[in-house]
Amino acid sequence: MVIGKRQMRACGVRVAAVAIPAILWAGFAFAQEIGRPTPGGLGLPNMATPVGDETQQFYNLILMPVISFIALFVLGLLVYVCYRFNEQVNPIPSKLTHNTPLEIIWTLIPVLILLFISVPSLRLLSNQVVVPEASVTLKVTGNQWYWSYAYPQDQGGGFSFDQMLKPESDLAPGELRLLTVDNEAVVPVNEVVAVHITSNDVIHAFGIPSFGVRMDAIPGRLNQTWFKVEKEGVYYGQCYFICGKDHAYMPIVIRAVSREKYDAWLAEAKQKFAGADSRMRVAAESR
User: Fold this and answer.
1) d(CA 100, CA 68)
2) Locate the Cytochrome oxidase subunit II copper A binding domain: which residues (predicted)?
3) Contact between 199 and 141 (Cβ < 8 Å)
4) What burial class does residue 81 get, using C-beta atoms within 10 Å of its C-beta: 0-12 exposed, 13-18 middle, 19+ buried?
């Protein structure tokens, strides 16, 4: 009987020694491609913002070890209880109903675990919701079922445009189905972008996984979030609230470029979308 217990302990240690690194490695090794989903991908997407990196580190280095340890501990405890207290090994059950030290321990340990998680969690939450001084402000409005973007006049903008899903028949080679749009929003890299988010109709949710950003778009309310993209590229997101029949067809696409390219795009976009804004104002006034 003693040999069996020792073998069980050794087996549990070996399982934990193999399982915990394997789970952690899986989270790192099978991460999605940056900016876009990867078929069969596992784990959080590769991040392109400081807050996104902090979110991923919090998940991989704190939450996953805690989750893995708790899961393996409970599994080991169940195996031990099934072995130690089954009818054959323990034919006469104990009459014990209370164990004050044990009850204190199993109450105190979860509290300590939550306190351990709370410190980095609150720091991350503060970094997400406190918007630093921004050099670019972008207003995003959710509609059924597309997004509208407005660039302020005092930052070289003074125009707005709609962003709609590009039909599958119009996709060029390499463009993503259900994610490619007609007009990409453009932001500069390595600069803080403040995003003001609202809605014209129902509740939507603006989210870009690679930025670590998700914020509700609520009619009559202006919510705010921010990001600072560190790598040039195209980043995809979607509406994260079920907002009607075409909820699945209102993607988000933001292209991050250098400041020089961004200024050039502003000049081109001002000419491209100024005419559209004028036509929309004339049509609204004629109603």
Assistant:
1) 28
2) 133-268
3) yes
4) exposed
Of 70, 90, 110, which one is at a domain's C-terminal end? Answer: 90
**Does some domain include residue 213?**
yes
Tokens encoding 213 = 């950003």
Give φ, ψ of 219 to 5 degrees: -60, 135
Considering the domain boundaries, does residue 272 fall inside one?
Answer: yes
- Whether 131 is in a domain gets the answer no
Tally the domains of the chain.
2
How far is C-alpha 177 from the chain's CA centre?
21
Highest-confidence segment of 40-44, 75-79, 85-89: 75-79
Domain span at residue 12 reads 2-90
Q: Which residues contact 200 (CB under 8 A, 6 or more apart)?
A: 141, 142, 143, 148, 219
What CATH number should be reported for the domain holding residue 252? Answer: 2.60.40.420
